[in-house]
TrEMBL record:
Annotated site, Lowers pKa of active site Tyr, chain positions: 103
Binding site for substrate: 136
Keywords of this entry: NADP, Oxidoreductase
Alphabetized PROSITE patterns for the sequence: ALDOKETO_REDUCTASE_1, ALDOKETO_REDUCTASE_2, ALDOKETO_REDUCTASE_3
InterPro entries: AKR (IPR020471), Aldo/ket_reductase_CS (IPR018170), NAD(P)_OxRdtase_dom_sf (IPR036812), NADP_OxRdtase_dom (IPR023210)
Active site: 74 (proton donor)
Name the record gives this protein: 2,5-diketo-D-gluconic acid reductase
Record family assignment: Belongs to the aldo/keto reductase family.
């Protein structure tokens, strides 16, 4: 059932402290091909205004998230940095417990431009290093990923970045990067949810030891009604006295069982807790397969062959 069979998944999940409304244990980690271990569930901060981001990050850290995903293109790295600093997660042991990802703007791809951009980004994030630095889009019509990768390798050698990743890379992009650099990324972050599963990409990643990370894992809520009430029925099957399972949790659990890393977004504390509370139930094989059957032909986001996130 796992998509990423090359990874090692630590299966012990978090538990909820109902009185404090927090999740006490760390989320499971996936060990990447480079040996680093990434929490399987993180918080995405796309489309959150910079001024509003710090309290969202503070809330997420308080309820138990140890994985934050941002990008230069989101325009909220400064807010993320403020949230880390206010929570004490920008230095020391707390920083070491956190996985922090950011991404390079497409307009700043290239060797010198990437190095300069990283200096700016690390200042906004108010920390000394990031756990993963990613090429945001492959821009095959203006390919600079090989030169960018050389800059990324330098940053890794300088221990300012731990893991190198890419976003939205299709198999042809991953092939091209490998031919030119001799290296695959540790992670490929792609749009992935029940109605857009990208089996060709995930299969390629499995075969080449690349972990799959899903953005928009809930299709921004659009997949809740996929299957004509199927997800609601599955959610009811797993609800019990004192514990209600939601459609969102059913979808996120499906991702977890596939071995996918997920970064659901929420600005609300109660929803943040919900999106992390995925480890006290399991889908049956028939339920899991029924969700997999929801795959469709239409993406919700942009086409990596034509899009640039400047």
């Amino acid at each position: 059932m796992d998509i990423f069979t090359m990874s090692t998944i630590e299966r012990e999940g978090p538990t909820v402290d109902e009185d404090r409304g927090t999740i006490q244990d760390k989320t499971p980690r996936i060990t990447l091909a480079d040996g680093n271990a990434i929490p399987q569930v993180g918080l995405g901060v796309l489309r959150i205004d910079d001024d509003d981001t710090a309290p969202v990050v503070e809330s997420a850290l308080e309820v138990g998230y140890r994985h934050i995903d941002t990008a230069a293109g989101y325009g909220n790295e400064q807010g993320v940095g403020k949230g880390l600093e206010r929570s004490g997660f920008n230095t020391g042991e707390r920083r070491a417990s956190l996985w922090l990802t950011t991404k390079l703007k497409d307009s700043e791809q290239g060797y010198d431009t990437a190095l300069k951009a990283f200096d700016r980004q690390i200042g906004l994030l108010r920390t000394d290093y990031v756990d993963m630095y990613m090429i945001h889009w492959p821009t095959p019509f203006n390919w600079r990923s090989a030169d960018t990768w050389r800059a990324f390798v330098r940053l890794r050698d300088e221990r300012r970045v731990r893991t190198l990743g890419v976003c939205n890379f299709l198999p042809e992009d991953l092939d091209r990067l490998y031919r030119q650099t001799g290296e695959y990324p540790a992670v490929d972050q792609i749009e992935l949810h029940p109605t857009w599963q990208q089996h060709e990409v995930t299969q390629y990643c499995t075969e080449h030891g690349i972990a799959v990370q899903a953005y928009s894992p809930l299709a921004r809520g659009a997949d809740f009604h996929a299957g004509g009430g199927l997800l609601a029925e599955i959610a009811r099957n797993h609800s019990r006295e004192g514990r209600t399972v939601s459609e969102a949790q059913v979808i996120l659990r499906w991702h977890i069982e596939n071995g996918t890393i997920i970064i659901p977004k929420s600005v609300h504390r109660e929803r943040q807790i919900e999106n992390l509370n995925l480890f006290d139930f399991e889908l049956s094989a028939s339920e899991h397969d029924a969700i997999t059957e929801l795959d469709g032909p239409t993406r919700a986001g942009h086409d990596p062959r034509t899009f640039s996130y400047s």
